[in-house]
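Translate structure to sequence.
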């Protein structure tokens, strides 16, 4: 199988996920270095089950100190649906307030914003830190909200589906889908089945089992690849067994199958992107071809007209799966 990177200087939209603001995550890796800047200066306390603001004028690079009680479920959110606001690609990191030991991390949980859910394992304080990706400080006013969550029992959620909006019946087979599964409840799941169902122009079913998923934990499940030989539209659905909260047990995305093009974005209207405030950056998107082929065009949508950009094509077999040797530059 051949794989190539298209490296796009400045900004290119390569959306590959669909998320829900109801989901939460508590990733075990990715936390940024602990900041020395606390804001607000007062220690925060809440027993509210509705989201309340910690501050609406925090900056990325600052942390808030919060009291927590063992056994209580807490959520911290920058998601607009929860009342948060971060007009940039945000991250959240949670630490023990005394030892600075990392507890949880969240990135891109709701669009490009973060939301942490955690059941307190001790009574004391935690630091919840806001950063701009990748662990950058800024001076953009940010609203961070938090709340307590009643024990809901078993609640597994499909947080994201990772696939492509357009695949090729000639070059994309087999196509591999993965999904991020969150335990948003208060009980541990064991032997949790996660099912991928492809319907429409092509059909396929595959089930993977998560051995164990603790409250607040998140795992990415990768399914067996499938082949789409018929052109048309696939419905790609990831589902979980029914539990106490059924509204987050299923997520479906639409996938166009044609003969010649591949695209990470869903639909024709960009809903997000990546970029950098000043200077130039390079953004890589990895595409696969299962046979020898030629690249005829690369379409790069921009949010602002008149942007200067350059397209580079790299071999996809570099160190760690990253870009390898440069094959072409525009």
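Result:
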């Amino acid at each position: 199988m051949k794989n190539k990177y298209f490296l796009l200087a400045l900004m290119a939209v390569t959306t590959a996920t669909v998320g829900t603001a109801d989901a939460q995550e508590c990733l075990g890796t990715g936390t940024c270095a602990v900041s020395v800047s606390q804001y607000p200066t007062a220690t925060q306390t809440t027993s509210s089950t509705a989201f309340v603001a910690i501050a609406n004028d925090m900056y990325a690079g600052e942390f808030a100190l919060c009291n927590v009680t063992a056994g209580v479920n807490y959520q911290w959110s920058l998601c607009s649906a929860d009342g948060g606001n971060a007009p940039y690609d945000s991250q959240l990191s949670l630490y023990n307030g005394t030892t600075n030991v990392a507890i949880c991390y969240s990135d891109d949980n709701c669009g490009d914003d973060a939301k942490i859910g955690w059941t307190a394992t001790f009574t004391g304080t935690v630091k919840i830190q806001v950063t701009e990706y990748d662990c950058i400080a800024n001076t953009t006013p940010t609203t961070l909200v938090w709340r307590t969550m009643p024990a809901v029992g078993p609640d597994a959620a499909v947080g994201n589906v990772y696939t492509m909006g357009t695949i090729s019946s000639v070059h994309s087979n087999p196509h591999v889908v993965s999904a991020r599964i969150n335990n948003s409840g208060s009980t541990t799941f064991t032997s949790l089945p996660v099912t991928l169902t492809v319907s429409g122009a092509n059909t396929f079913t595959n089930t993977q089992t998560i051995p164990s998923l603790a409250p607040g934990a998140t795992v990415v499940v990768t399914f067996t690849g499938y082949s789409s030989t018929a052109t048309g539209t696939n419905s790609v659905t990831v589902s979980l067994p029914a539990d106490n909260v059924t509204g987050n047990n299923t997520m479906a995305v639409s996938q166009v199958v044609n003969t010649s093009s591949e695209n990470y974005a869903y639909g024709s209207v960009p809903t997000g992107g990546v970029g950098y405030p000043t200077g130039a950056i390079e953004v890589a998107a990895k595409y696969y071809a299962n046979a020898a082929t030629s690249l005829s065009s690369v379409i790069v949508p921009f949010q602002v007209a008149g942007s200067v950009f350059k397209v580079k094509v790299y071999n996809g077999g570099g160190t760690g799966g990253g870009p390898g040797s440069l094959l072409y530059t525009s």
